[in-house]
Amino acid sequence: MDNPKLKILYVTQKVDFNDDLLGAVHAYIGSLAKQVDKLYLVCLSKGEVRLPANCQVFSLGKEAGENNLKYVFNFYRFVLPLIFKKKINGIYVHMNQVYVYLLLPFRPFLKLFRIPLVWWKAHANLNWQSRLARHFVDRVVTSVSVAYNVNTSKRIIVGQGIDTERFRPLPSTRADGRNIRIAVIGRLSPIRKYDLLLKAVKKVSEDLPETRVEVSVYGQPANQKQQAYYDELKALQTELGLEQTVFFKGAVPNRQLPEFINQADFVVNPGGSNSLDKSIIEAMACEKIVVDSNAATAEILEVSDLSPAEKAVFMFKREDWRDLADKIERVIKLEPTLKSAIEKKLRALAVKNHNVDRLSGEIIKVFNNL
Q1: Measured between alpha carbons, how far is 129 from 349 in angstroms, rounded to an integer?
Q2: Given this model, what pLDDT does residue 175 score?
Q3: Residues 6+ apart with CB under 8 A from 146
Q4: How many C-beta neighbours within 10 Å does residue 189 have?
Q5: How sure is the predictor about 287, in pLDDT bands with cuts at 50, 70 and 90?
C-alpha cells in the first residue's frame, strides 16, 4: 500500500540496472518507490536507470572520474537542500557507513526536523566503524541476526530482498540431464573460498568418474588483490586438471542471472562472509538447492519447512573442502522426487520471507514507527 506521506532520501553505492552485483539494488529501489510518495536517490555512481517517475537520481560522479573531495562536495550539494528545505521526512542509507558519518554534523537538524535516519547493514565481519555507526542512526536494519551481530536495541531484522517474480523456475532453460551442471556466483575474492571449490570438484570427479560435472563460475575480480587471487585459482585449476570442468565465465548483469541459475542442476556457495548473500536467496527462488556453509543460511533455514535430514544434505562444514565434496556428491545422487521437494520448500522460503516487496514493506514500517 502506498504511503503518500513518505518522502525518502535513499543513499547507496550505485544505481545501475545492468550492473553484475549491484543491479539488484535497482530492484530494491523500484519496489520501495511503489510504496512512497517521493524517492530521492544519491549514489556514488550512476549507470542505466529504469525507475518510476517518483524517483530522482543524483550521482556523486564516480562514473565521470571525480575525486574523493568532489564526492563529498557533491554529497552535501545534493543532500543539504533536501534536509533544510524539508523536502524529505526520512533518510535511508544502504550499506556504506561513510554516509552516516557524513551526515553526523547535521544530526541535530535531523532531530529538529524529525527526519529519522535508517541504515541497512548486512555483513558478518564488522569493523569498528560499522559498530560505532549504530550510535548515529535511529535504526539499523539487517537481513539476519548474524549479518549485524551487535547487541543493540536499534537493530531490526527484516530479511533479504529478492525479486521472486524474476528469480523463479524457468523450465525451458533447465539442465538437459546429460551433464551435472553447477553454478557458482560471486566476485573472485579470497573470502569466497574458490580454492576449496576446486579441490572439492577434483575429489567429486575422482569419486564419480562416470559423472560429467561442469562448474560455471559467474564473477570477476574487483581489484588488484582479487586479480592476484584469480591468478592463483587459474594456476590451481591447471594443477588439478580442471580446465574442462570448471569454467570462469566472468561477470554477468544481475538481470541475466535467472537464466544462468536455471541452467544449473544446483548452486554451490563455497565461502562468503557468513552474512545472507543475496545470490543464495536468488538461487532458492529459482528452486535450486544451494550447497552452502554460511551461518546466515543456517539461520533462515530454521524457519523453513525443511527437516533436519533435508538440511543435512547440502549444508557443509565451514572451510572443509572434503565435506563440501561430500555434499556435492550427495546432491548429485539425490532421488529426483526428494530433490524436487527440497527445491520447492526453498522457493517457498524465499517467496514468503525474502521477496523484495516484503522487504520494502518492512522498511516502510520502520519509518512509520519512528
Answers
A1: 33
A2: 53
A3: 124, 274, 275, 295, 296, 299
A4: 19
A5: very high
Q: What CATH code would you report for 3-161+355-369? A: 3.40.50.2000
Question: What superfamily in CATH does domain 171-353 come from?
Answer: Glycogen Phosphorylase B; (3.40.50.2000)
Task: Kindly report the pTM of this predicted structure.
Answer: 0.91
Per-residue confidence (pLDDT) for residue 255, from 0 to 100: 87
Return the C-alpha cell found at 265. 542442476
By the 10 Å C-beta count (0-12 exposed, 13-18 middle, 19+ buried), 79 is classed as: buried
For every residue of 250-300, which 3-state class applies, written as one string? ECCCHHHHHHHHHCCCEEECCCCCCCCCHHHHHHHHCCCCEEECCHHHHHH
Domain with CATH 3.40.50.2000 in the chain: 3-161+355-369, 171-353
Q: Which residues have C-beta within 8 Å of that of residue 235, sequence separation ≥ 6?
A: none
Q: What is the mean pLDDT of residues 27-54?
A: 95
Q: At what angle do helices 356-369 and 336-354 cross, to 10 degrees?
A: 30
Model pLDDT for residues 333-366, shown as the tens digit of each residue: 999 999 999 999 999 999 999 999 999 999 999 9
Q: What is the mean pLDDT of the chain?
A: 93
Q: What are phi and psi of 331, to 5 degrees?
A: -70, -40
Q: What pLDDT score does 273 carry? A: 81
Place of cell 580446465: 243
- What is the C-alpha to C-alpha distance for residues 220 and 348, in angstroms, rounded to an integer? 31
Residue 46 to residues 72, 160, 252, Cα–Cα distance (Å): 16, 23, 18
Q: Tell me the C-alpha distance between 357 and 110, whole Å.
A: 27
- Torsion angles phi and psi, residue 154, rounded to 5: -80, -15
